[in-house]
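Q: What would this chain look like folded?
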Amino acid sequence: MKSKTFTASKLKRTHGHYCRAAHSVLHSDWQQKIEAEAALIRSAGPACVLSDISHLGIAAGAATGIPTIGLCSLSWDLVLEPFADPARREHATILRQIREAYAKADCFLRVAPALAITAFHPVREIGPIAEPAVPQPAALRKAIGAGQSERVVLVGFGGIALRAFPFEHMEAMDGFRFVVDGAVPDGLTRVLSLAALGMTFKAVMASVDMILTKPGYGTIVEAVALGIPVVYVRRYNFPDEPPLVDHLHRYGRGAELSLADFLQGRWNAAIEQAFARPLSSTPPPLSGAQDAAHILKDYV
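A: My prediction, written as structure tokens:
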């Protein structure tokens, strides 16, 4: 299978290449872009600029003199730094411009769980931000024909360029039904495509017995809040994986599955490990949106 050769190191190299290329385009004529963006902000006349870490938006907001706030669980300098080539002067220039832009913000709202943010000052801590759907397990089980004793697993890897799922292995796993966020070959009985269910991804995620995914902010925070166990395949190409994995293990139930084991269909051990783990402590409330609103009212 071609998918066997798509390793974690390839994922990291591919992600790094596209990140660097996109930012090289963004940072060409950087000062002119700031001036153009600032003109648009002035024409809108906002009381405050709130940016989900767009360094262009923050630099432009600061240029207008309008209060400018960053909000996220990470920052782009930390995302790009591992991919910077010391031999490429333009990479250092991009990182410097990002950090200079961030330093002009009036403050940064650090959304838990988060990286240690160093480019913004001051940093204000706020809770997790998520809005899980209402669980509908009975409706989901009926839609996919799951038996009473069968476990329903959502398999979703948005953002990871996996070329294939191990459908033959999935079909052979007694006691499970799988909902895949993607295309599914014809003729399978245990594996269904999310698109065929008439339910949103969030509704399905809230209604399954387990999630098999990458460590992404929304999925991990919502799964922990809902008490749903997670088996995760790490990307090793994004800096917010460690705090998300820590959040999962601290407040939820999780187990790691290697990319090789994922592609070979060797899922059972990790699945059983995640199901067997007890909940260790109560997760923090999803208070981030309210926390942010309380802080922002002082700027408008």
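The chain has 13 helices and ten strands.
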